[in-house]
Structures are given as C-alpha cells and as structure tokens.
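Shift notes (night). Ran Biogenesis of lysosome-related organelles complex 1 subunit 5 while the centrifuge was going.
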Amino acid sequence: LPDVGEIYSRLLDHRPVIQGEIRYFVKEFEEKRGLRELRVLENLKNTIFETNEHVLPKCEQAMHDNLNEAFKRLQAANDMIRRLQEKEHEERKLQADKRVAREEKCVAHWEEFMKEQQSKQAEVDEEHRKAMERLKEQYSDMEKELAKYASF
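Came back to this:
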C-alpha cells in the first residue's frame, strides 16, 4: 500500500509543484516587473501633468481662436447670401411685374383687335345687306322688264 500512496502522490497530486511555480511567478513579478511598472506609471503621470498644464491650454486657445475666426467668416458668408437672396427676390419680382405688364398689354391689344374685327364684320354685313337689296331691286326690275316682254 505505501507504493500505491507514493504512486498516487507522484501521478495525481500536483499541489507541491504548482505551489512552487506560483511562488516563483510572484517573486519574478515583484522583483523584475514591479520597478518597471512603477517607472511606466511615473512616466504616465508626468505625461498627463504636462498635457494638463501645457498642451490642453494651448489647444483650447487655438480652438477658441479658430472657432472665432470661422464664426466671423460664416457670418460674413451668411450676410452675403442674404443680400444675394434679396437681389434675386427683387429681380424675380421685377420680372414678374414686367410679365404681368406684357400680359395686360397683350390682352388690351387682343381686345382692341376683336373690337376692330367686330366693327369690320358689321361693315361687311352692312355692305352685304345693301348689295343684297340692290340685287333684289335689280332682279325685281329685271322681272318687271321680262314681264313686259312676256305679255307679247
């Protein structure tokens, strides 16, 4: 049986080996990496301090100046666009007024033309009526003349 216990501890009980590895890993980490991690953290702290004290204020000032300049340029562009829109609106209104005036003039010419056509039509109708009367008289006279000869 002592052989079985020894076989068991050698084959299946790994605790002593694992504990040794853990102790070795902790010792290595604390001794070798501990100082390096401390230096990295110190450098990081210095970088953050430098950024907060110097870089960020410069960036904020540059951003503020650039945004003010951009805002002024946008305002100027906005004013120019507004003036252009006003000019375009005035031009459209002027064109619309001209178009309305042309349309009214065309309507007036058309009405005058139609009045002239009606008066000409009345003249032509009157001439036609007079011509018809003359023809009726002429045919009536011719019938009378024929009636004279027909009695022979």
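The CA atoms of residues 3 and 145 lie 174 Å apart. The longest helix spans residues 15-150.
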